[in-house]
Amino acid sequence: MLRGFPIRTQALKWSLVNLLLVGAFLLVAMFGRGSTAEAAPLGNLRIRAIPAFARKYGLPCSACHTAWPELNNFGIVFRDNGYQLGNERDSPIWQNPSYFPITFRITPNWHRESTNNLAIDSVPGGGTGSTLVSGKVQQNGFDLSGMDLWSAGTLYKNISFQLLPSSDNTAAWHFESAWVRIDNIKNSSWLNIKAGKFEMDNLISEKRFLFLSGNGGLYQIYHYDVPGSSNDFGYGDNQLGVELAGHSKNSYTRYSVAVLSSNDGNVGFTSGSGLPSNRGYDVNLSFSQAFNGGTLGLQRVGAFAFVGQRPTYYETSSSGGAPVQLVGLGNKTFYRIGVSGDFFLKKLEILPLFMYGHDNAYLGAGVPSNTALPAGAQAPAFVGGFLESHYYVSPQLVFFGRFEKINVAQQAFVNLGFPSDYGNVTAYSVGYRWYPIMFSRAGLAWHNEYSIVRSNGFLPLSGNGAGLQVFNLANPVWSSSIMAGFDFDF
Amino acid sequence: MTRKKILALSALGMALLVVDPQFALAQESHVGKLSGHAAEGKQLYRRYCIGCHGPDGDSNGENAPWIDPKPRDFTAATFKCRSTPTGTLPTDEDLDHAIQRGFVTTNMPSWNPLTPQQRADLVAYVKTFSPRWKTEKPGTPINIPQETPATIESILHGRELFQKMECWKCHGPAGHGDGPSAATLTDSKDNPIRPYNFSTGSRFKCGETNQDLYRIFMTGVDGTPMPSFADAIQPKDAWDLVHFLRTLQALQTQEAALWKKYAADHATEIKPIGPDAGGQ
Description:
The complex is a heterodimer of chains A (about 500) and B (about 280).
Chain A: H1 8-30, H2 51-57, H3 61-64, E1 65-67, E2 70-71, H4 73-80, E3 102-106, E4 109-121, E5 132-143, E6 147-156, E7 159-167, E8 173-182, E9 192-198, E10 239-247, E11 253-261, E12 281-292, E13 298-310, E14 313-317, E15 324-329, E16 332-345, E17 348-359, H5 361-365, E18 381-394, E19 397-410, E20 425-438, E21 443-456, E22 476-489
Antiparallel strand pairs in A: 1-2, 3-6, 3-22, 4-5, 4-22, 6-7, 7-8, 8-9, 9-10, 10-11, 11-12, 12-13, 13-16, 14-15, 16-17, 17-18, 18-19, 19-20, 20-21, 21-22
Chain B: H1 3-19, H2 21-24, E1 28-31, E2 34-37, H3 38-48, H4 50-53, H5 92-101, H6 116-126, H7 132-135, H8 152-164, H9 168-171, H10 210-219, H11 235-248, H12 254-265
Antiparallel strand pairs in B: 1-2
Helix pairs in contact in B: 3-6, 5-6, 8-11, 10-11, 11-12
């Protein structure tokens, strides 16, 4: 299908460039040093794209995506309009009966994970004479990502849906999202109601970003809580609830109001820790406005605010012996506020985000609110964000990079005994994606990425080093990832 | 350097200029105050349009075999929706409006989410596919006079014209696109084509206002059997026809309300449209 592509020679040129870059990545990986031990696998990939829509409408991936899975404004309008183009051919009654809007996605890959400042045995096996020493845990090899099995589309005109069973790389499944949306209520694009489990209306979506590596495959600030806090909230996690949203016809102006269960999207009245959730509700507000930037492209700015509550103790029953937690009680509040943007300078896209987070002191100290706060406990707060950029050489090649920084503005305890920068995070990610094919039936990307994170005194949010102890809390933990793989969906 | 060498190099340079694809990318468009550039439009075309219209603009994109109606063939530079007389090239604004509006009931969506500059760039690039844009200028947009009042007399006269000008042969007596000739119609590329069914949808491919409908009569829909009536009817008659056609749509329009009331009061007087009718 590449026949007659006007830039065939350019594609060849970029193939050679790509080859060189791949070689460079592999060389760096092979000559990296460090002791080998268990390392966290590549996380469950979070990014989404739906070639089922491309098949339905005959549009190439690039029509809706700057570089899939990130949406461009045409894709945003399509999504906001309930997965409808508005050409009187959106309803399923117009589709061939054999058409089924489903997408498979997985990424066979090679990756290397390395994390230092971990407490490891001085003698492998931990035998006689072994002590805990500071060491680096490094692992590399071929691997699989998680898998998405995504279906989305229209049940009828102005009734859309999404169902996304997703697995980790051991094929342990969960429902990443499942919702129904009533679109264009009273023929107004300003009134749309969605119910179920869904991604909050982030201007910068973590579910659709371009990063895949272990440490780069998440926005640190979307999952950050000050170390020691009992809060399990992650702004990037899909949530359970109902959302009222609206947009102008071209989606330049957008808003959303969501009322969500206070359990970070976990099902069965449980929280992320497996303990029962409370009976409370959280609220998320978001607004964004786009401006026509002339020859530079579309410019968009937005703001968001999330107010939530989490339990600090539980109603219990000891009828069976040991106390069993029944319902979360003693709710204490927290909030996240921020601003973000999406700016284009022709082929260069810049995505800045700034967030401030604040937790109640009881959440920060992790103690029940029906007891007194420990001495020195105070409400923890953090401030941070990221600056991400993409350079689109063509619809089939994109380079990307990101710098992230989170500073603890107020520790959970006065005079904790740690350095003042305990809990701070600094992260860098760079990479590129090359799409050798770009048509309306499937998507394939060759993906190379390097990421490194410095977490002061605690384990990285990527999960690298999970289950181990940080050897020296006064020192930073450095964790890096190198990843190369074929990212495909069909 | 000898004079011969200078001439030879000059000739070579001219030849390269002519055959160089970049030369075509110097094409511009002018939409309002915006200037579109084909070089920018080429990237956008590749991103958004290539799947249907094809890399060479000849409607042979990878999806074309499965699309009905077929994508536009830009190499022919024949466009349905124009403000210019039949047979002439459209204006840049016409092409921009088509991209912005999309074509209802086809695979061509509205590209309104693109910025005005992006659409202008696309227009410039679309104009590189046909040599007509190098040798011809766009036609002069037709004048659309002020609309006449939508009265029952206007509607009834429009109905007479619908019969007299044999619109029903293609569009059907009730405007359902099922006239006796409908099944035999083909477009300029010999693909089967269906006449517009007025009873479905609220929009026409070339717009949705009364002015848009008037324009369609007067410019025709090039590349289809729908001719221009610019030389056949007067502006007032054209407005009468517009008012009648509005009664065929499943819409709550002023014309539909007038016709509904008239039809209820004069049911026995209304003659059917078709081969045996004389008009009203």
